Automatic annotation (TrEMBL):
Domain Fatty acyl-CoA reductase C-terminal, first and last residues per copy: 398-495
Name of this protein: Fatty acyl-CoA reductase
Gene3D superfamilies (alphabetical): NAD(P)-binding Rossmann-like Domain
GO process terms (BP): lipid metabolic process
Keyword NADP: yes
Enzyme class: oxidoreductase
Start and end residues of each Thioester reductase (TE) domain: 21-320
Highest rank taxon of the organism: Eukaryota
Keyword Oxidoreductase attributed: yes
Family in the record: Belongs to the fatty acyl-CoA reductase family.
Length: 495
């Protein structure tokens, strides 16, 4: 039975703790680091592991990519001239790399960290759906292994929090439960997943490609990742390698290391604090917003009736902190605790709501062109299946492209540049459909019973307690998309 949880307990837990965070330069990492520093200024240290050649470079990167962002505005205002001093006291930038043995740290640094570490939070990942297979394996799988090895050296470790993705369970159209993935399990019946074999396969493939140029190697590695993912039943190399990372963590953790796996769905902009609408990077659903804003796309692959499972970034960070406290120092844990930070079960929202909110926003806040004239809104055409979209692309673009190709041959290459440009764009769009299509029509529903049980222990009795809200039922999606997320995307992404 979980103990009751409130803001005071979470804040009190963080006091005096030494916390290692990987992936702090990413969207979710920044949100978590800022939140901890803001609610508990008496945290002992926050060690941020970043890729850099040396300590000064690591410090500079953290300053530019983390501390220097608008997200830290409330903290900056709170401390005024003392802000830099506060940050210097609490933040330690580590030049390292989770893809390397010992996290890329020298022995004395590693030993000192292990002696004092209380909590490890692994957010580092490559989230590219079409990443090189070797890179995805290095970061999303081997990174987990190296962190687990370090965690076992930490005598006083109270918690290892690993951020995965809800989509590790594949493209099932059923209710997807919060349960650990079984090592060796594949989504294809009769196929076994052997992580060591995948690593050997990549190593052998790289040897065969050693004589090719860099572009050929990159393309081959990307295609290998997609091929291996689909061989085992996953849609892309990102969710495939994240699944392997979870499996490896389950194998290596042992029974006496408290481990929590947090699986968010599509993480969207900050809903409440510190900066509503703040976002970094483009999420899959934001392609629609950006394309509509720039009027660069007239059609979109997606069924407006499909539920798009998304959750604001600050809610994910809040859930992580609550779970961290709930399971800290939990010994003899038979399996890792799994939480799915999702919305499709408790408060589902469809693409239609996003599209409607976007239309409302642009009607009330019309765009103005370089000539000062208002850009009229236009309705987009949606394709409810990939075959329909492919047929449209063939008729609207492929056939005219073939006619241009014939004309180019007859006119001795007069249209070479035009043809090559359009051909490249057509192939790029069709590639995006291949890689991202499954997500546009994902019909699974993520169970969040474990997270709901944790939510039920939260005492929402004060404004301070509300700062740790992670209940998707409290989200008014129309209002959030219209007032917060869409303006945030336009301000921070669509510059």
């Amino acid at each position: 039975m979980m103990e009751s949880m409130d803001a005071a307990r979470i804040i009190g837990y963080l006091k005096g703790k030494s916390i290692l965070v990987t992936g702090s330069t990413g969207f979710l990492g920044k949100i978590l680091v800022e939140k901890i520093l803001r609610v508990q200024p008496h945290v002992h240290k926050m060690y941020l592991l970043v890729r850099a050649i040396d300590a000064p470079s690591a410090k500079q990167r953290v300053q530019q990519e983390v501390i220097g962002t608008e997200l830290f505005g409330l903290l900056r205002d709170k401390y005024g001239e003392g802000f830099d001093s506060f940050i210097g006291e609490k933040i330690v930038a580590l030049a390292g790399d989770i893809t390397g043995e010992d996290l890329g740290l020298d022995a004395p640094t590693l030993h000192d960290l292990a002696k004092h570490m209380d909590v490890i939070v692994n957010i580092a990942a490559t989230t590219n759906f079409y990443e090189r297979y070797d890179v995805s394996l290095d970061v999303n799988v081997m990174g987990v292994k190296h962190l687990c090895q370090f965690a076992k050296q930490c005598a006083n470790l109270k918690m290892l929090m690993h951020v995965s993705t809800a989509y590790v369970s594949g493209d099932s159209a059923e209710v997807i439960l919060e349960r650990p993935l079984k090592p060796g399990s594949s989504l294809r019946e009769g196929v076994r997943l052997d992580i060591d074999a995948e690593l050997r396969l990549v190593a052998d493939a790289k040897k065969d490609l050693i004589d090719g140029d860099a572009a050929e190697q990159k393309k081959a590695m990307k295609q290998l990742g997609l091929q291996r993912a689909r061989h085992h039943g996953w849609s892309n190399s990102y969710v495939f390698t994240k699944a392997m990372g979870e499996m490896l963590l389950g194998q290596l953790r042992g029974d006496d290391m408290p481990v929590v796996i947090m699986r968010p769905s599509v993480i969207t902009s900050v809903r409440a604090d510190p900066v509503p609408g703040w976002i970094q990077g483009t999420r899959t659903i934001d392609t629609l917003i950006i394309g509509y804003a720039k009027q660069s796309i007239s059609c979109f692959l997606g069924d407006l009736s499909v539920v798009v499972d998304c959750i604001p970034g600050d809610m994910v960070a809040n859930a992580m902190m609550a779970a961290m406290v709930a399971h800290s120092e939990e010994r003899l844990q038979a399996a890792a605790a799994v939480y799915q930070a999702t919305s499709s079960l408790r408060n589902p929202v469809t693409y239609a709501v996003l599209y409607r909110s976007g239309g409302r926003h642009f009607e009330e806040h019309p765009r103005v062109g370089d000539d000062g004239q208002v850009i009229p809104n236009r309705h987009m055409r949606f394709f409810s299946s990939i075959p329909r979209f492919r047929l449209y692309m063939v008729l609207a673009f492929k056939l005219p492209l073939e006619i241009l190709h014939v004309a180019n041959i007859l006119l001795c290459g007069l249209f070479d540049k035009l043809y090559n440009d359009y051909s490249r764009k057509y192939k790029f769009v069709m590639h995006l459909v291949d890689v991202y299509g499954p997500f546009a029509f994902f019909r699974g529903c993520f169970d969040d019973t474990n997270l709901e049980r944790l939510r039920s222990t939260m005492a929402m009795k004060s404004p301070q307690d509300e700062m740790f809200n992670f209940d998707p039922k409290s989200i008014d999606w129309d209002d959030y998309f219209y007032r917060t997320h869409i303006p945030g995307v336009l301000k921070y992404v669509c510059k």
